[in-house]
């Protein structure tokens, strides 16, 4: 079976730090930043490279902050 | 220093699997962090995009937290007086029968001040779609008790919990509407997990597609959270929703193609 590699792009200025994406990720790719954005929210960040592009994070994000790519490698 | 896990070489158009739909504007949603209103807006917008009906859809916004919904959808929208969205949608659909017409309403709007309009539009069998966000509370005005507030639930106007002896029973309006002859599709969904989001989107799609059949109201309840009103973090609120809202408001279809769904219990 071909391996898939995913990647997410997080629009950190529009993130409200709700952590729903983080909880929805089956591969624990996401966590919250120590820093805050200009609105004062801790934003979602990637903490490893194991994303498979399942899009769970993006579809639970109420603010549509996450864009997802998925490639066969 | 945070490590960079970006993989820019796979960020090509052919590898794109999810991007915010252009049927939503770039305006920042005013909703609280983690609020189901945002997720539900996005699902409606995605359905509109996928059906290719952006210029043929007219939405009706309510009074409540989603009073500004028209700022977020890049479609024609009309604001209704509190609770009157189904009446307004009735008029719009009758004037423009070829348009897809939907209302978007909270539980205070739809099941308290607007109960009359809701019941009659559903009983008459208007060919419209109603999206009903049930967070069991009046979110916008400070978390007061709604008809949908659970027994024992704490709200700012039931600080010791809803006492049904004194405050009356919660209204399961969705079950009630399913019994009316004018509803064609009635379903209850939720959007707090990825699997439920996928299912809710299919339901919203069906609720819009049904307007092509001209068979009556398609009604989608979304059991949602109100983190600020419930005084919980978004994650705590979703857990509370699972444990308290879903046993009282079970998810699933109540009526499909005009037929009540029989529960096997
Ligand atoms: C005629 C009228 N009565 C009362 C109000 C005050 N009011 C504004 S929003 C609201 C309730 C909204 O609750 P809900 O429909 O559940 O939506 P939510 O804010 O929870 O999304 C009320 C009572 C009003 N704006 N107009
Ligand atoms: S796409 Fe899936 S695997 Fe990747 S970060 Fe999002 S939830 Fe995790
Ligand atoms: S779900 Fe969206 S808003 Fe919430 S933390 Fe994740 S990216 Fe930010």
What does this structure look like?
The complex is a heterodimer of chains A (about 70) and B (about 260). Chain A has a single domain, classed as Alpha-Beta Plaits, CATH 3.30.70. In chain A, about 15% of the residues lie in helices and about 35% in strands. Chain A is elongated and about 45 Å long. Chain A has a two-stranded antiparallel sheet with strand order 1-4. Chain A has a two-stranded antiparallel ribbon with strand order 2-3. In chain A, a hairpin with a 5-residue loop joins strand 2 and strand 3. By secondary structure, chain A is mainly β. The model of chain A has no long low-confidence stretch (mean pLDDT about 95). Chain B has about 260 residues and is an alpha/beta fold. Chain B has one domain: Rossmann fold, CATH 3.40.50. Chain B contains nine helices and eleven strands. At the A-B interface, strand 1, helix 1, helix 2 and strand 4 of A face strand 1, helix 1, helix 7 and helix 9 of B. Strand 4 of chain A pairs antiparallel with strand 1 of chain B. One iron/sulfur cluster binds next to strand 1 and helix 2 of chain A.
Short description:
In chain A, 14% of the residues lie in helices and 36% in strands. With 73 residues, chain A is mainly β.
């Amino acid at each position: 079976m071909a391996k898939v590699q995913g990647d997410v792009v997080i629009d950190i200025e529009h993130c409200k730090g709700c952590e729903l994406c983080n909880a929805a990720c089956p591969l624990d790719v996401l966590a919250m930043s120590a820093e805050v954005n200009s609105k004062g929210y801790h934003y979602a960040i990637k903490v490893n490279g194991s994303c498979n592009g399942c899009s769970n994070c993006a579809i639970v994000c109420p603010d549509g902050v996450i864009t997802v790519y998925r490639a066969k490698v | 220093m945070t490590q960079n896990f970006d993989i820019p070489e796979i960020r090509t158009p052919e590898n794109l699997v999810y991007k915010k739909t252009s049927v939503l504007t770039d305006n920042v949603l005013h909703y609280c962090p983690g609020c189901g209103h945002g997720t539900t807006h996005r699902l409606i917008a995605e359905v509109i995009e996928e059906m290719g009906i952006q210029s043929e859809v007219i939405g009706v916004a309510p009074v409540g937290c989603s009073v500004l919904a028209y700022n977020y959808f890049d479609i024609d929208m009309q604001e209704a007086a509190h609770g009157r969205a189904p009446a307004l949608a009735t008029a719009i659909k009758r004037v423009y029968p070829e348009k897809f017409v939907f209302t978007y309403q909270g539980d205070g709007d739809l099941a308290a001040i607007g109960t009359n309009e809701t019941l009659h539009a559903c009983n008459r069998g208007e060919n419209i779609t109603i999206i009903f966000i049930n967070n069991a509370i009046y979110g916008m005005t400070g978390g007061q008790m709604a008809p949908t507030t659970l027994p024992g639930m704490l709200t700012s106007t039931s600080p010791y919990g809803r006492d049904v002896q004194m405050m009356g029973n919660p209204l399961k309006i969705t079950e009630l509407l399913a019994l009316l002859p004018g509803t064609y599709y009635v379903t209850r969904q939720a959007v707090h997990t990825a699997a439920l989001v996928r299912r809710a989107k299919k339901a919203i799609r069906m609720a819009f597609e049904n307007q092509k059949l001209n068979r009556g109201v398609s009604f989608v309840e979304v059991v949602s959270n109100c983190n600020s009103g419930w005084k919980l973090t978004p994650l705590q609120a979703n857990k509370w929703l699972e444990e308290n809202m879903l046993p009282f408001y079970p998810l699933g279809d109540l009526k499909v193609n005009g037929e009540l769904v029989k529960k096997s219990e």
